[in-house]
Amino acid sequence: MSNQYSNKGIYKNISNWHNFRLTVFAEGIATGIFAGLVISFFRWALHETEVWRAGFFKNVLSQNPLYIVLWFAALILVAFVLDRLTKHEPLAAGSGIPQVKGAIVGLIKMRWFPIMWVKLVAGIIGIGAGLSLGREGPSIQLGAVSAQGISRFLKRTRMEERYLMTSGASAGLAAAFNAPLAGVMFALEELHRSFSIVVLLPSMAAAFTATILSRFLFGRAPIFTMPDLQVLHTEDLLIVVLVAMVAGTCGVIFNKGLLNVNRFYALPIFKSSFHKIAFALFCAGVLGFYLPEVLGGGNNLINQLATTPAPLKMLVIFLIGKLIFTFISYGCGVPGGFFLPMLVIGALTGSVISNLLVTAGIIEAAKGPTIVVIAMAALFSSSVRAPITGTVLIMEMTSSYQQLLSLAVASMIAFVVAELWQSKPIYEELLARSLNSQKPSEAVKHQRTLAEFVVDSGSYCENKMLKQIELPPHTLIVDIKRGEESITPEPDVKLMQGDFIYVFCTHTQVEEISKLTDYKDK
Q1: Per-residue model confidence as pLDDT tens for the chain (522 residues)
Q2: Using CA atoms, how far apart are residues 410 and 390, in angstroms rounded to an integer?
Q3: Torsion of CA 100, 103, 109, 115, to 10 degrees
């Protein structure tokens, strides 16, 4: 039996915890280099295809009309290629973030190399052809499978592989957005849901290494260019709350649309996955002539609006067009994420709000771009339900470090708005639907692993002795970490808030055990 599935390596890591932390830190650096190179190539290729597409649509109308016919014929060919690629590796479809979440908890088994090359090729083709999809979700999955490849090459244990995949996802977001802190926060807050040092160290190492590599290749400029952002003061707090409430509600609408677009594609006219992809690409072809601003990820649209404000009517058209076309693009099932389009929709929402507030004389025109930035953070937090990541991400993407307080307040308000609407976090819901549609294989279901859990305040396990805790059958607590102290899991040991417990169990038991350690509303 290989080291990958051997228990010997797991016990060795547990008993040599100090050395293990240093090892995963070094492996995090290696992950950052590999993931940074892969994602930098992906980022460069997408930029080149989008530049070509913009030039094509700008000049094609003045050429022979035959070129238009040839372009739509080419889109049919692209649809065929994307359909074949997606069928070859189904786990490369979509954004990839739900798949990474499932792989980290052991419910999905990813084949790292097939996913990597399919994601790269299909992502470049699909986004390059104009689908309203972003590079960030795919970059996160590319980072995770890059880490998985390193783990398999080094023959690491499944426990260590999960840590490396988290660090790879962190590197993916950091390299794609030039935002290392946001990469770390997203990996910890959204993917791994743990802030233990053994997760934090490799995630930071990978994110900062990938960012250094990305900045060496692409420069230090932020993704969104927002010059001369005005700081909102205490007297503007009500405006921040208003913007957050509106953008938070838009985040709920965004989630509803994205989760229900499958009903549209269930219509009888879509007889196969090829028809869905061909329809989305046909829409891209038409929009390329009449509304090219909504094609692709959309970050250029935000940069354009920051320097050249558009009239309200045009902003509303951009917003509705981008929203609907994102649903159509993501729903067709090709590789590509909605991470960046979601932020663009948030920015367009903020542009509409700021335009109305300026027209009403409530704020000065100079504060308009600040409203845009705040709306982006609010919509992200409402949709993903990760307010810390939303705050840090937008702050880094726009270099608006002085807006920290306003961004944090907006993110929290939007989070509450989504809770009041009882909207579910988008990535968790997509993962749940994916798992419901395809049951885990028997090999995955019965594969045993070592899982890490943290005892939350108010959880079932808090202040209970191990002999009082009813674990699922055939599970075993093999170690307890309390700060720097390692505690032998004897029956009379009492668990305390903040303890990290390591349980040997099957993948399907992870969720059941997590319910014992997570906060329980009494």
Answers
A1: 344 444 555 556 665 666 788 888 999 999 999 999 999 999 999 999 988 888 887 777 667 778 888 889 999 999 999 999 999 999 999 888 889 988 887 778 899 999 999 999 999 999 999 999 988 889 999 999 999 999 999 888 787 888 899 999 999 999 988 889 999 998 888 877 667 788 888 999 999 999 999 999 988 888 787 777 787 777 788 999 999 999 999 999 999 999 999 999 999 999 999 999 999 999 999 998 889 889 988 878 888 877 777 899 999 999 999 999 999 999 999 998 898 899 999 999 999 999 999 999 888 888 888 899 999 999 999 999 989 989 999 998 888 888 888 999 999 999 999 999 999 899 888 888 877 766 555 445 556 677 778 888 888 888 888 888 888 888 888 888 887 788 888 889 999 988 888 888 877 777 778 888 876 654
A2: 10
A3: 20
Q: Which secondary-structure segment (H or E) carries 71?
A: helix 66-88
What's the pTM?
A: 0.85
Angle of helix 312-331 versus helix 339-359 axis, rounded to 10:
160
444: its two tokens: 């995955």
Residues forming beta bridges with residue 486, ordered by sequence position: 481
What is the arrangement of strands in the sheet containing 448-454, beginning at the earlier edge strand? Answer: 448-454, 500-506, 476-482, 485-487
Contact 346, 299 (CB under 8 A): no
In whole angstroms, what is the distance from residue 53 CA to residue 41 CA? 18
In whole angstroms, how far apart are CA 482 and each of 24, 96, 116, 424, 471?
20, 34, 38, 33, 20
Q: Which residues contact 493 (CB under 8 A, 6 or more apart)?
A: 465, 466, 480, 487
Distance CA 280, CA 265 (A): 10
How many Cβ atoms are within 10 Å of 362's Cβ, its own excluded? 14
Amino acid at 177: F
Quote the CA–CA distance of 83 and 473 in Å, as a whole number.
Answer: 43
Q: Residue 49: count other Cβ atoms within 10 Å of its Cβ.
A: 18
Token representation of residue 19? 């050395």
**Pair 169, 202: CB distance under 8 Å:** no
* Calpha distance 172→140 (Å, rounded): 4
